[in-house]
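Troubleshooting: if your tokenizer reports a length mismatch, compare against these two reference records.
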Amino acid sequence: MDAKLNSIGYDFEPSRYSPDLGYSRLRVVISGKPTQRFFDVKLLSIHTFDGQFLRNTQITRHELAPNETFQACLGEVRLETYQGETLRAFSFGGNLQATVEMGDLYCEFTSTAPILKVQEDPDSVSGVIADEIMDLMAENETKLAGHEDELYERLSKFEPYSLFLSCMVSLQKRAEDVPMAVRRERYHKVSSNIKRAIQIVRNTDGWDGHSPSLEDLLSDGVAS
């Protein structure tokens, strides 16, 4: 374990995107008792789906085998410290590896889509996009008979990067559909951040801007 991670308690690794758009990896150290770390993590929680039900999986030092792997689905990643502080991020899904090292639990979360850190500045690109995607998810959830569990059953069929692109397409379309007469300051903030994120992905990945929307993926219910 490197000295920076051991001292601070967590570390976000920048994504491949330039300008910056989210992170590619989150590393966390969880101890069984309070330490002197800057951000002394007691608990990490992620959303997981077991094939039938969405679960809020909480990870602490004392509840795991020496090595475990979790498949996270789209949603919030939350860290809580012994002092009651919290740090929130948003992911489109990914892989979490948990390993006991020198008495502490070392967690490494990686994803093929950007991991968005949302707490520092709610008006940042990451914060705005995460908020809009959660609104989008809530809208789609109400259209399904099984609501939350059915939504995540369908989402579980797709890779994080595909979900990321589909969400960008849906957010752009939703912004374009807002009537001119009701476009206010919040609209312009959201719209400009979505456009900026899409342009960053196009420039870095060579994406042409065309992908199935989130609604298209959910209606198909199967990976293509």
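Reference record two:
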Amino acid sequence: MTPKATQALHANLAALDPVDLGKDMATWWRIFLFNPETGHVKMLVEQKNIIPYQGADILARVLAGDETYAPGAMFFEFENTVGVPSVPTPARDEGIEYYLSTLALSAVKDYVRVPLVVTPALSASSSDYDGNQVTFFAITAGVTGIHGKTFDSAVNSKVYGVALAATPTPTSYTQDLLFSRSYDGFDPVPKEDGYQLGGQYIIRFR
């Protein structure tokens, strides 16, 4: 990504930060299409999420001082279809096994595992805090999902779900643990030629 594109991306996303997403919202996602040549951002959608039980395991390990369990990757779950993707109903007792086993059995579904591109950012949600809000950020790259399905506009790939995962062994996706997962409240985002998909995950402690 060029320096000009990086600067434009951050400017576009920073302009979104003041949007009032509600005092009662503690976690949410932003999904967008991003042109890596120009930094142009479009098709922004925002939605809530669930934190699976595995998320509590991750947080406890990090608070105990094990930094290897800090979130390190985002998942972009997709289906290759000319129609509307079938979207699952997530449950808190579903962990990483859904991504490793259930998606592996599908002929048209898969997920892209993307490392976080920058260090998570701290900010304050109000004057009561100095830094109670953390923002994670990633952009897709490549044209193949974890289980070998093509991720490209040529095969009508559409992202319908996102997740944030801890990566205690970054080179081994089978060791990942699930922190956040979301399908709620947004239309599937198609992969467009010349664009990558980006994700922001924000968690606010109050």
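Descriptive notes for reference record two:
- The longest strand covers residues 71-80.
- Residues 47 and 185 are 5 Å apart (CA to CA).
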